[in-house]
Write a structure and sequence with these properties.
107 residues
Length: 107
């Protein structure tokens, strides 16, 4: 009985130790812990699309640069917030380009 209890305790302690090996921002859905880098890449791609149609907003690049700078620290929520703000601005810029494609005076 003591052997079973000892083995159970050892397995439990090792399992709780291994749970701390991954950072708290680990994405269990796809196995990626680079959510910040993925968000920055998505924001950069959307910003390139906005620049292509000629409606790149002023602060989008600043947000991307700040997110990249903050991403040096692992699991930085500020970097993720900045990257998401940049992506939202890039998407809004694309929407603005589409909405104002036929802009002109209306009489």
């Amino acid at each position: 009985m003591k052997k079973i209890l000892l083995i159970t305790t050892a397995v439990f302690s090792l399992s709780t130790y291994s749970a701390d090996l991954l950072p708290s921002c680990h994405n269990w859905n796809d196995g990626s812990s680079d959510t910040v880098k993925a968000a920055i890449a998505a924001a950069t791609a959307e910003n390139k699309k906005a620049a292509k149609v000629g409606f790149e907003w002023r602060d989008t690049v600043k947000f991307i640069k700040k997110a990249t700078k903050l991403s040096a620290t692992p699991c930085n929520s500020s970097a993720l917030t900045m990257a998401n703000m940049a992506k939202a601005q890039a998407l809004d810029a694309q929407k603005q380009a589409k909405d104002q494609a036929n802009a002109g005076p209306s009489f």
